[in-house]
Amino acid sequence: MRTVAILGAVCALVAGVALPALASSKPAPAEATTLQQMAFDDAQSLVVASEATSAPLERGTYSATTPDEIAKKKAEEAAKERAAAAAAAARVASSTQGGGRLSDADLRLVAAGSGAVRYPLPQGSYYVSRTLSGSHNGADMVAPAGTPIFAATGGVVRVSSESYFGYGVAVVIDSVVGGKRVSTLYAHMTNGTRAVQAGQTVEPGQFIGKVGNTGRSYGAHLHFEVKVNGSLVEPIGWLRANAG
Fold first, then answer.
1. Which end of the chain, N or C, is more open, meaning fewer C-beta atoms within 10 Å of its C-beta?
2. Domain 107-243 belongs to what topology?
3. Are 152 and 184 in contact (CB under 8 A)?
4. 164 closest CA partner among 142, 146, 143, 186
5. Tens digits of pLDDT across the chain (244 residues)
6. Where does the record locate the signal sequence feature (predicted)?
7. Cα 185 from Cα 166, distance rounded (Å)
């Protein structure tokens, strides 16, 4: 009996010590705590992966990278280049209609030898030193000073001057030949030899002055220019095609 009493006392002692410790280690009931609340309590920012969303990606923020998009972009750029080239060609064509140069293939306006077009200098009295090219707008027909000059076409004298820019003593005649507007210019004449005045009507082959060396000239010669519908043409070829 004594032994039983001693064991009972020991068990009671152990229970008295252990039970309070176990009671203190058991968590006390508490309300459910969310992740957001935990983040607030800890003063930290928390991103929950399940709640993250992607910002919309606008097409304008990136470049085409797929083969189809690259091919389409190249095709669009090529189309733009072709359109720009076509527009440039149209501008050139438009600008040459009023002041460009016609080809030699369309020089004939009347039947050669019809009399509507004449040589401005007597045949055999001159040679051609240069003709239409670059900045030179006509043909230089070299002849002795004083050689008579004749109107290549009939028409109305528009210019008759003793000092016409770099042309020196010069005459300009406006005509209609073969249904087209023709303007002929005769430059570097001898001073005081002009035989026509502005506004005067002249006939083909009519005497209008004499070869000289006035204006921007380096030796006696006739500078002869021809324009058809406002476009420069090669004068010597034009004479051969129309004067015979």
1. N
2. Glucose Permease (Domain IIA) (2.70.70)
3. yes
4. 186
5. 556 556 665 556 555 555 554 444 444 444 445 545 444 444 444 444 444 444 444 454 455 578 888 888 877 776 776 565 544 444 433 333 344 555 544 788 998 889 999 999 999 999 999 999 888 999 999 999 999 999 999 999 999 999 999 999 999 999 999 999 999 999 999 999 999 999 999 999 999 999 999 999 999 999 999 999 999 999 999 999 999 7
6. 1-23
7. 13
Single pTM value for the model = 0.59
Contact at 8 Å (CB) between 152 and 190? Answer: no
* Residue that is written with structure tokens 């080809």 in the block: 103
